[in-house]
Amino acid sequence: MNIPDLTARYRAGTDPATIVHATYDRIDARGDDHVWITLRSRADVLADAAALTRRWPDPATRPPLWGVPFGVKDSLDVAGIPTTVACPAYAYVPDRTAPLVRRLLDGGALLVGKTNLDQFATGLSGMRSPYGTPESPLVPGLVCGGSSSGSAVAVGAGLVPFAVATDTAGSGRVPAVLTGTVGFKPTRGLVSTLGLVPACESIDCASVIARTVADACAVLSVMAGPEPGDPWSRDFPGPGAVPADTGPLRVGVPDHPEFHGDAAAAAGFGDAVARLDALGHTAVPVDLRPFLAAGRLLYDGPWVAERLAVFGDFLADHGDDLHPVTRRVLSTGGSLTAVDAFRGLHRLQTLKAATRPVWDAVDVLAVPTVPTTFTRAEMAADPIGRNTVLGHYTMFANLLDLAAVAVPAGTTATGRPHGVTFLGPAGSDAVIAGAAAGFTGETARHNAVAVTPHAG
């Protein structure tokens, strides 16, 4: 159920307790699906629901997310609930709630629990957690993506209408495509990251996973805004509570897209570009090489060492408590020097300059969200190499200060999900949201062109 439908039910007289019971019934029916690290008790959430009714008895005065259940990635603090970052030895119980979560609670949303993730938010597969590996709800045996694995599956499986994620290298977009959901990574700093255990603090970004672009926009409109005391907070316009019809756009598409041998995924993206044309947009070929080169800096450059600014001491003292792949990734940062850091910064600045002229020629970029997909067995066989493949089109966004929204684009001829990500410069959240909503058929002007699976 999406947020407008749920709001309509409340206006018609449905009690929030009914929705809470239905939510927990769905969670119980799925059994141990490894979605939740900490699931709040049904009784506690029912008490919160009763408090909502007492606080806002008049439907006309209720905030926009009144009575909407949601989950929070377990790298964000919620007072009184352990923050584990998927590492039991690292866990602590915060006494303050992250501002972005506080804004959602003040907006009437009902917190169900904290969701699973790749340990220390390091990974794009969803397979690096001691709390188990969630599976894509779309295809048995398919990875669900990460690091926001639990958040994506919670939404994709219909457990909650939205969940809070984070997205540094693609952690909110990769799982979106693999679970059939929308992953909205706003402009960095639009949503505060206070109360977030950093992965790579200078480029970390809070994000939303939802069923629709409109739902993601509605949630972001509550979460977004400058936060006093947050050194990374920035004052940019948000996407608005409702995505706007953008009209025809110049849409940049890769001139030589890479699919790592997945012909079905290539055909699926071809269908997506044809759909953009049918919607009245103009496809503009773009050389993605400088974008992709920037993305490679995230793990081949000094930014991997930034993770040690938070976890270095823990790695030294508790290395045996880490997932072996997480330990391996973090350990590579220890050999990097200050000289390497400046070389990386200088290289990034050169690549930013190389990508800047693209935005004079296009309004948005549209790229495949992932070039191909993997089963859990395939990912286990090459956990680092295939993780890099999943991040091919996502790792550059935050380094280049881009906003991005990933949306489903149907199913390939081989039965795998595929999707499209719309990107734009910092502050373009409303434009990319409008383009994405048009693509998915959510805006009235575009409803006539439906998303259809590739016919082969």
From TrEMBL:
Keyword set includes Hydrolase: yes
GO molecular function, one term: allophanate hydrolase activity
EC number: 3.5.1.54
SUPFAM superfamilies: Amidase signature (AS) enzymes (SSF75304)
The UniProt record lists the keyword Cytoplasm: no
Residue stretches making up the Amidase domain: 19-430
Alphabetical UniProt keywords: Hydrolase
Alphabetical list of InterPro entries matching this protein: Amidase, Amidase_dom, AS_sf
Protein name (database record): Allophanate hydrolase
